Amino acid sequence: MHPEYARNLASFAYVWGWPLADMDNRRAALARTPGAGRLAMRDAPVTPHQTAGACPDPDLVHGAGLFSLGETPVVLQVPDFGDRYWVYGLYDGRTEQFGRLGRAYGSRPGFYALIGPNWEGQIPAGITGVFRSPTEMASAVPRAFMNDTDEDRAAIQPILNLISAYPLSEFDGTLKIVDWSRAPTLPGPAPEGEGETKRVDPETFFDRLPDLLDRIPPLLGEEALYAQFRLILAVAERDPQLKAAMVEQAHEAEATTLKRFLEWRHNGHPAGNGWNRSTNNARWGIDYFNRTGTARSNMFDNRPEETQYFYTDLDGDGRPLTGARNYVVTFAAGQEPPVKGFWSLTLYNRHHLFHPNPLARYSLGTRNTSLKRNADGSLTLYVGADSPGPEHESNWLPAPDDGFSLYIRAYWAGAAVLDGSWRPPEVLRIP
């Protein structure tokens, strides 16, 4: 095999397989912890010191379970959330959603079984619904809205304690209670530097790829692609120099392509006023570009009808956002994101993580009960390292001194968001 052909194919294999490897390494890390095959749930939103995932959502309390469904189905326990927005994202080994479970779908409280692609056992009475994953590797990510009041934080705790997952063999039709406020912190790899915890290693990627190809079957039309990957892996097994060249190519792809995926202009498509918006989120198919871009920049998107995402690194004039300047984002009266769920504007540092600040404030939107509107009904949010003054501080998102990005989420978005007729406002630099 010509070495340059192998190098080029290796580079593509690395970019193509990066989300699969990230997903599998998350599953493997949880499999080494007590209670493997279950679900870990938080009792409050994520804080800045937690680096397990980029672009954490500050408006939701969420959890995660990563399962191997080859032989053992899993039961997801869904409590009665009342009028509260909630969704359980169900993802296969490609980070693609395969089930619809949440308030936007009219889902009922109860017990839902996750089963693997080849499981043919008996579902017991009392199971509310069944979701079959197209891959044996699967993930469940429960999310529940909580506003910024102490009252709501107290009100949500009994609901959170009824969110659970366990093997089907343990199902007895009764609600199991877990006090998540007393749950131990799950061990995991430490982040390298200031960014998200790193899970994909160019040095070992091609050692892991054969197993991923075996466990995650090709989509229709991907058979030839899988055959090409298997070919270079087979040749590299006999040729150490070729294997070294492939690993070198993976390092280069990590330092170039994957690094650039942290820039929002490489995620989705333009949405106007300097923003980009998500594309094909959680239903990627063969959109490998956006699948890998999202896995690198903000893993575990929801489907478009569940959530629309808008993001930018730039102000309205196309200049990078920086804490050396201050900005305003003004939603005209009646022009906040039209949603049936909720919306928010979140600020992330240059690593797509929260910026620690004295207000412990990382987003503004529906959940914030103290926002002040202008006399004409419009809503101005202030963004920057410097306080806009006491009269505007309730509407201030503190920024770091260096670069940062902004991110709008529209949960259970209305038609104007889905069809693109609603546009996010410009990020205007204060002179």
From TrEMBL:
Extent of the signal sequence: none
Q: Which residues form a coiled coil?
A: none
Residues of the DUF1254 domain:
38-167
Q: Which InterPro entries match?
A: DUF1214 (IPR010621), DUF1214_C_sf (IPR037049), DUF1254 (IPR010679), DUF1254_sf (IPR037050)
Gene3D superfamilies referenced in this protein's UniProt entry, alphabetically: Domain of unknown function DUF1214, C-terminal domain, Domain of unknown function DUF1254
Using the record's annotation, list all stretches that form the DUF1214 domain: 306-413
Superkingdom per UniProt = Bacteria
Q: What Pfam families does its record include?
A: DUF1214, DUF1254
Q: What is this protein called?
A: DUF1254 domain-containing protein
Organism, as annotated: Brevundimonas goettingensis
